[in-house]
Design a protein that fits this description.
Blueprint: E1 5-10, H1 16-26, E2 31-36, H2 40-47, H3 52-67, E3 72-75, H4 101-108, H5 112-126, E4 131-134, E5 153-156, H6 157-170
Helix pairs in contact: 1-6, 4-5
């Protein structure tokens, strides 16, 4: 079997390199393709919420990726994801969340160091926890600047999803 083709669908250009880097690092054999619709964030902002038209665009992008031979489609745009209903599976979680709009703004303006510092500062504010999840693909770059804390894992979306896809395809 040839290496699987993984289609990555992005709503922001800054999400591309973090996941591309992790594929090169963890699964260089995967055939990665990218599809970018950078009008999505502005359309979501203008609409105020995810609309049926936005949902249809995601369906169309997935169908397009499939028609191009993708073995898997990964959306890297977390702002458009549906909620994961962990409680219905019997998992009890206590979550603390932080949003740092200034961080993505800094990254989009080419101020990567400022982005990483803002993410690290927010991580420090979280305090003791079992896991720290950098949920946006573009945040992965900041992980190396977050000090190690005993008993706490720092998880990034690119590492988590690439490792998961690799396990799925290894089991085939």
């Amino acid at each position: 079997m040839s290496a699987p083709r993984i289609a990555l669908v992005h709503a922001m250009p800054v999400a591309i390199e973090p996941v591309a880097y992790v594929f090169r690092e963890l699964w260089p054999q995967a055939r990665v393709t990218h599809l970018l619709d950078d009008s999505l964030p502005a359309d979501l902002t203008a609409a105020g919420s995810i609309t049926p038209a936005i949902v249809e665009r995601f369906i169309a992008m997935a169908r397009y990726c499939e028609s191009c031979g993708a073995d898997a489609v990964l959306f890297t745009c977390s702002a458009f994801g549906t909620a994961i209903d962990a409680a219905s599976r019997g998992i009890q979680l206590r979550l603390k969340t932080r949003t740092i709009p200034a961080a993505i703004a800094a990254l989009q303006k080419g101020r990567a160091a400022e982005h990483d510092q803002l993410i690290a500062a927010a991580a420090a504010e979280i305090g003791p926890c079992d896991a720290l999840v950098l949920g946006q693909f573009s945040m992965a770059r900041a992980a190396t600047g977050i000090p190690a804390t005993a008993g706490r894992k720092v998880l990034t979306s690119p590492h988590s999803v690439v490792a998961r896809l690799k396990r799925i395809f290894a089991a085939r």
